[in-house]
Specification:
Helix content is about 30%, strand content about 35%. It has about 180 residues and is of the alpha+beta class. The protein has a single domain, classed as 3-Layer(aba) Sandwich (Aminopeptidase), CATH 3.40.630.30. The chain has an eight-stranded mixed β-sheet with strand order 1-2-3-4-5-6-8-7, with helices on both faces. Strand 7 and strand 8 form a beta hairpin. It is globular and about 40 Å long.
């Protein structure tokens, strides 16, 4: 895999700081990862404590890999210094000389929903990912029922590319997902 560079961390926005996870983040991570309302539209969770510990271990280990292809970043409220969620950028494997892209994702503790924080953090990560990693595009998927995440993706300029019917199975049955893309200028 050829990557133009690496993200310069931490990434700071007006109200937030995005940094690598560390072992001391377990309580904060588990505080949102254990909630059904947080994970309802995600592919994982809600976590028990052991699942959160495994998840954190995966994040810390991925940060040490070279070349780095996974950025699982802790979302920190700058003024308070507290961890309130996570953002990720998973670099695609550009097999056969394909252009380099990455998947964007985010999760936020429900106490911080509705304040524009996911949008602010995703915009910051998108901007840095495009410029520092030389990505040709960034993509994301979103459960069609998750209206706040849909709004966040659209606010940062991502364009709905398609709707995938019966994309994944959940406890509620098969659900549809929207696929979004943000092409390089």
């Amino acid at each position: 895999m050829i990557v133009a560079g690496a993200l310069s961390l931490p990434i700071e926005t007006e109200r937030l700081c995005l940094r690598d996870f560390c072992w001391g983040d377990i309580d904060a991570l588990h505080s949102y990862a254990s909630l059904g309302e947080t994970t309802r539209y995600l592919l994982w969770g809600p976590n028990d404590r052991q699942e959160s510990e495994i998840q954190l271990s995966t994040f810390v280990e991925a940060a040490a890999e070279l070349p780095r292809t996974i950025y699982e970043l802790a979302l920190i409220l700058r003024d308070e210094g507290c961890l309130i969620g996570a953002l990720c950028l998973y670099l695609d494997d550009p097999a056969g000389g394909a252009t380099q892209g990455a998947e964007l994702g985010f999760v936020l503790h429900p106490d911080f929903w509705g304040k524009g924080l996911a949008t602010e953090a995703a915009a910051g990560l998108l901007t840095c990912g495009m410029s520092e990693l030389g990505l040709a595009f960034v993509w994301a998927t979103c459960d069609t029922r998750n209206l706040p995440s849909i709004r966040a993706l659209e606010k940062i300029g991502m364009i709905r590319q398609e709707t995938i019917r019966s994309a994944r199975k959940t406890e509620e049955g098969l659900v549809d997902e929207h696929k979004y893309i943000f092409p390089a200028p």
